[in-house]
């Protein structure tokens, strides 16, 4: 069961279209970046629970499933709980504190792009949109990967199952590791699936 990257990317592009309709041109670049960090911090705060799914210790209490749909729904429910409990109440504060996440992503890196995008620079708008769509499509792979853990697979087997590829020296001890290795396998598919939107300005 290789995860459908193009479907993930299409959902991200559709979100961008919705936000273009919802927000003013001045608000839009910032809102896209906020949503990027919403996804990043959600996975960041889920990581310990995700890691525990793969532990095989005597005292492991992780519920196991017999089918992927139920396992995936469990992960999605866990994600929603983390969003409500950890991310929603403090997203802007965490983001503006520049807490590094994943592969070193920080809000500070996007501030200049946001300001230029708000002033009508379409290249900066596209860079923000591409960053959102690309990064969020890669990190979405963590969800089916964790669901495969609930089916009893180890980290490596689950990685191959979801990505359809393998990497020498695979280490999935942190969220940054997961992003790096999923990106190694899926980057060309993600890039090929991206559909540039018309200029905002």
Number of spatially distinct domains: 1
Tertiary shape: globular
Binned strand content:
under 5%
Please give the count of helices.
9
Helix content: 55-70%
Major β-sheet annotation: none
- Rounded average pLDDT: 93
Instruction: Give the H and E element order.
Output: HHHHHHHHH
Task: Return residue spans where pLDDT drops below 50 for at least 5 consecutive residues.
Answer: none
Number of strands: 0
Ends apart, CA distance between termini: 41 Å
**Structural class by secondary-structure content:** mainly alpha
Could you explain the architecture of this structure?
With 201 residues, the chain is mainly alpha-helical. Helix content is 68%, strand content 0%. It has nine helices and no strands. Helix 2 packs across helix 3 and helix 2 packs parallel to helix 6. The longest helix has 26 residues. The model has no long low-confidence stretch (mean pLDDT 93).
């Amino acid at each position: 069961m290789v995860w459908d990257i193009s479907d993930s990317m299409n959902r991200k592009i559709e979100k961008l279209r919705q936000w273009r309709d919802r927000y003013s041109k001045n608000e839009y670049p910032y809102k896209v970046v906020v949503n990027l960090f919403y996804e990043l911090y959600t996975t960041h705060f889920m990581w310990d629970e995700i890691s525990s799914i793969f532990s095989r210790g005597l005292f492991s209490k992780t519920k196991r499933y017999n089918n992927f749909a139920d396992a995936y729904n469990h992960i999605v429910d866990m994600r929603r709980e983390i969003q409500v409990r950890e991310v929603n109440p403090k997203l802007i504060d965490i983001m503006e504190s520049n807490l590094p996440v994943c592969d070193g992503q920080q809000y500070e890196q996007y501030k200049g792009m946001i300001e230029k995008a708000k002033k009508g620079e379409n290249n900066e708008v596209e860079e923000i949109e591409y960053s959102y769509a690309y990064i969020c499509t890669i990190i979405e792979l963590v969800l089916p990967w964790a669901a495969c853990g609930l089916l009893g697979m180890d980290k490596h087997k689950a990685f191959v199952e979801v990505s359809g590829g393998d990497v020498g020296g695979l280490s999935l001890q942190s969220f940054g590791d997961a992003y790096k290795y999923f990106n190694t396998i899926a980057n060309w598919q993600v890039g090929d699936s991206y559909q540039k939107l018309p200029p905002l300005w």
